[in-house]
From TrEMBL:
Protein name per Swiss-Prot or TrEMBL: AraC family transcriptional regulator
The keyword Flavoprotein is annotated on this UniProt entry: no
Entry keyword set: DNA-binding, Transcription, Transcription regulation
Organism: Paenibacillus arenosi
HTH araC/xylS-type domain boundaries: 177-275
Classification via PANTHER family: ARAC-FAMILY TRANSCRIPTIONAL REGULATOR, HTH-TYPE TRANSCRIPTIONAL REGULATOR EXSA
Any coiled-coil regions, as ranges: none
Superkingdom in the source lineage: Bacteria
SMART domains, A to Z: HTH_ARAC
C-alpha cells in the first residue's frame, strides 16, 4: 500500500483502490499518513493501533485515517504486542487511498472516530467493487465514473455512520430501521421473514414482534406496500405490460398482484393506469 503525493483539482481523487488477502502474518507500519485511508475488514480479524492502544478489528470494522495519522495494521497474531503469529491466517479487506477537497469536508462533518463498526451491506460492497474495477481500467487517471461512484459510496457510509441519529430522525429503533431498509432493498426479490431476522441477528418471532410494535405492520405487509409502491411508479412512468410489472415488483403471479392491488388501492392495475393517464 505504497503512498505517493499527488496534485488534484477534482473534488475526489482516488489514488489507490483494491482488496488485500492475507494468509500469513502481516505487520504494516506507516508513521504518518499522507492521504486519507478507508479500510473495511470483510473476513478474518486483526488489530490496529489507535492512540497507542491495540484495538481489535473484525468483519465490519471500518478504519478511517486522515493525513498525519499513525497507521499500524497487524494481521494474524495471537498477541499483537509480542507479534506471535497464528498457525492459520485468513483475512480479506477492501481499501481506498483518497484525496480531494470534498473528502476533507466530508471527513470533518462525518468522521468522529478512526475505528467504527458497520453492517456489511450489499450496496456498500457492490459500489466498492465497482470503484475497484473502474479504477483498475486506468489507475493513473481519475475518471468521472470513479468519482461519481466514490461519491455514492460516501453517501452510503454517511448513513451508516449516522447510526442512532438516523434512527431518531425516522422515529424508529435502529434495529427496526435496518429491517425496513432490508425490506425496501429486497422487495423486488423473494425473501422470507427469516431472511429479515437473520439480517438483524434476531429470531423470527422477536423480529416480527419488534417490527409490528414499532410500525404497526407485519414484515410481509410492509413488503407488499413496498412492492405496490414500486408497481405504481412503473405503471405511471413506464411502458411495460402489467404482467411484466407484476413480475419485476416481486409478485409471484399476476392474479395475486391484481387481487392485492385492487384490495389495497380500491381499483385494478388497469383502472389505475387509465385513471392516472386521463388525469395528466
Amino acid at each position: 500500500m505504497e503512498q505517493s503525493p499527488t496534485m488534484t483539482t477534482r473534488p475526489i481523487d482516488v489514488l489507490f483502490s483494491g482488496h488485500a488477502r492475507h494468509s500469513k502474518a502481516h505487520n504494516l507500519i506507516i508513521p504518518e499518513m499522507k492521504h486519507y485511508l478507508i479500510r473495511l475488514q470483510l473476513e478474518g480479524s486483526g488489530h490496529t493501533t489507535i492512540d497507542g492502544t491495540d484495538r481489535s478489528i473484525k468483519p465490519g470494522s471500518l478504519l478511517l485515517l486522515k493525513p498525519g495519522d499513525y497507521y499500524n495494521l497487524k494481521i494474524g497474531y495471537t498477541d499483537p504486542e509480542r507479534l506471535i503469529p497464528l498457525t492459520k491466517v485468513h483475512s480479506l479487506d477492501y481499501y481506498l487511498i483518497i484525496n480531494g477537497p470534498m473528502v476533507e469536508q466530508w471527513w470533518a462533518e462525518h468522521v468522529n472516530e478512526p475505528l467504527v463498526e458497520i453492517d456489511l451491506e450489499d450496496r456498500i460492497l457492490a459500489i466498492w467493487r465497482e470503484i475497484m474495477m473502474e479504477h483498475r481500467l486506468d489507475p493513473t487517471n481519475m475518471n468521472d465514473i470513479v468519482e461519481h461512484l466514490t461519491y455514492v459510496l460516501f453517501r452510503y457510509m454517511e448513513r451508516t455512520l449516522a447510526g442512532p441519529e438516523l434512527s431518531e430522525a425516522h422515529g424508529l429503533p435502529r434495529t427496526v430501521l435496518k429491517m425496513k431498509q432490508f425490506i425496501e432493498q429486497s422487495s423486488a426479490d423473494p425473501f422470507t421473514i427469516k431472511d429479515v431476522a437473520d439480517h438483524v441477528q434476531l429470531s423470527e418471532s422477536r423480529a416480527s414482534h419488534l417490527f409490528k410494535g414499532a410500525t404497526g405492520k407485519s414484515i410481509m405487509d410492509y413488503a407488499i406496500d413496498c412492492r405496490l409502491n414500486m408497481a405504481c411508479e412503473r405503471i405511471l412512468h413506464g411502458y411495460m405490460s402489467l404482467e411484466q410489472i407484476a413480475e419485476m415488483c416481486g409478485f409471484q403471479s399476476y392474479t395475486y398482484f391484481h387481487r392485492t392491488f385492487k384490495k389495497r388501492l380500491g381499483l385494478s392495475p388497469s383502472q389505475y393506469r387509465e385513471q392516472r393517464t386521463l388525469g395528466r
